[in-house]
Automatic annotation (TrEMBL):
GO terms for molecular function: cysteine-S-conjugate beta-lyase activity; pyridoxal phosphate binding. The keyword Lyase applies. This is cysteine-S-conjugate beta-lyase. It comes from the Bacteria. Pfam families: Aminotran_1_2 (PF00155). Belongs to the class-II pyridoxal-phosphate-dependent aminotransferase family. MalY/PatB cystathionine beta-lyase subfamily. Its cofactor is pyridoxal 5'-phosphate. The lineage of its organism: Bacteria, Bacillati, Bacillota, Bacilli, Lactobacillales. InterPro entries: Aminotransferase_I/II_large, Class-II_PLP-Dep_Aminotrans, PyrdxlP-dep_Trfase, PyrdxlP-dep_Trfase_major. It is an enzyme of class 4 (lyase). Keywords: Lyase, Pyridoxal phosphate. Its EC number is 4.4.1.13. Residues 9-81 form the Aminotransferase class I/classII large domain. It comes from Lactobacillus helveticus.
Length: 88
């Protein structure tokens, strides 16, 4: 990677810290964040406790009972709500 230095690399104490750090780079408190539902409650709490708004995109079960992202719903909500990010 061109231009990447050791000073550009930081430590995160787990996935939730990484999610919050990424949000702080790409969004401002009060911005809308697209989350799938159901989702891990830690993601929900991390987003809300750091001042972001949640826009939910429900997961759907396919014919085999596997949860899948609904890409049409995601696209619609990102365009309608001007959501900034797509998380798990």
């Amino acid at each position: 990677m061109s231009g990447l230095t050791k000073e550009d690399i930081g430590y995160e104490n787990g996935v939730l810290g990484g999610v919050v750090s990424a949000l702080k780079v790409f969004a401002a408190p009060g911005d809308k964040v697209l989350l799938h539902s159901p989702t891990y409650m830690g993601f929900t709490n991390a987003v809300l406790s750091n001042g972001y708004q949640i826009v939910h995109s429900p997961l759907i079960k396919d014919e085999n009972g596997t949860w899948r992202m609904d890409y049409e719903d995601m696209d619609k909500k990102i365009k309608e709500k001007n959501s900034c990010c797509n998380l798990l």
